[in-house]
Amino acid sequence: MALVNALPSDFSDGDLPKVPADAPAAGPRVWGEAGTGRVVIVSNRVPSPSEQGATAGGLAVALADATTKGSMWFGWSGRRVEETSEEASIVLSEAGVTFATIDIAERDYQRFYNGFSNGALWPLLHYRTGLLRFNRPDYQAYRTVNRAFARALLPLLRPDDLIWIHDYQLMPLGMELRALGVENRIGFFLHVPFVPPSFLQVLPPADELVAALSACDVIGFQTAADADMFLQNVTESLGVQPQRDGRYPYHGREVAVISTPIGIDAMKFVKLAERAALTPEAARLQESLSGRKLVLGVDRLDYSKGLPQRFDAYGRLLYAYPQHRRAVNFLQIAARSRQEVGSYQSLRRELDRRAGDINGEFSDFDWVPLRYMTHPVNRNALAGFYRRANIGLVTPLRDGMNLVAKEYIAAQDPEDPGVLVLSRFAGAADELTEALVVNPVDADEVAAAIHQGLVMSLEERRARHEALFRKVCHTTARRFCETFLAHLRVQP
Ligand code: ADP
Q: Exactly one of 160, 399, 451, 465 is catalytic; which is it?
């Protein structure tokens, strides 16, 4: 997952923040304790107070669920303008959160966002080196925008703020802040997977990025495997051998590498799903199914999500298990994203073609097996759709976490729950082991899992759901934030 569908942002300049005078000379120091010191979240997109909710992406949703009074959220406004703003626009939300955003120059945005972030880093970090497009001007713009973020954030910082940077668009930001003299504790969390050195080294500035991240005090990943791969890159790129606990020295500081899975506000989602089942959208969906079972996929339209392979697997289900023909509907909601990037346009055409093939092959005059839509659905309706779905199909080829998997579990009726079919390559598969875990490239295996879910006894569905729901309630968005911030607060 990554902060993608969300919303607005910031920038500015001023005096250098100072380390608090009462900092002890030696021994562990705890920052931001007992209500002192703000948490300053920095992400590419910032959900404006009014925009939170309806269309926000994974990170936006998780952080919005966990953002508390007194914190500040800094990032891009979503506006592309002639010149990048030098000062942030500031809005205080009703909940007491300060939103500080800047506008970015169109010429930088294209290269920073579509170019380096989503044309090079995103495919690389999802193991798709064949889709990676690298050029120097894009990388320079990436560095320029990160520098602009640092300059705009600097005057807003207070000496005891904890700075928490999010995701692959902002890997050099910690280093840029240090270059401006910022001595605050800085944390970075990567919401997408990480790759071993043999992949990262394909990117020409690989070593520079590992060094830039090492300006942070804490670097967090979704899974232990991702953290371990980053540590391998520390050795490869920096020639430093980390300790077994994931710490390593760099430029006079000690960097801590940790893993902590992101989650959702499970109980809030349960309530949303209970209410959503009564919405007009849920009623329309129910009516349209005419009593048939529902297989549901909900994703951003992205090549990491394994959508062509998922369509193929559904085709295999109808072919190999004919008892499900006319008895099941597959609804794929694949919200359009990053449409300016070429690989996303070709993915869309590919899906159009495969959906046409399946419907052409199996449709009847009164039954269309696959419904595929590319506009987003609001969260209320979505929660109701999850609850109605007999199968939640979450089969990415690679995913940092995949919050949809957790939302699907939280939305189920515990008395009559649906079954989650989950890719072993989603970060969520580390935790959600009671799902039907599949290899997403194996159409026969995925088809067999959908079949197994469709015919599974109520007793087994309840047992699996109970175990999964407990986990989703345990690793919530709030716990994710608390765990990361607990690491960030303690200075060795
Ligand atoms: P990613 O961050 O890569 O988009 P995640 O599964 O981690 O993937 O998070 C996606 C978030 O966006 C979830 O909160 C989900 O509800 C929401 N979302 C994903 N796809 C859609 C869609 N098609 N329509 C509406 N919301 C969506």
A: 399
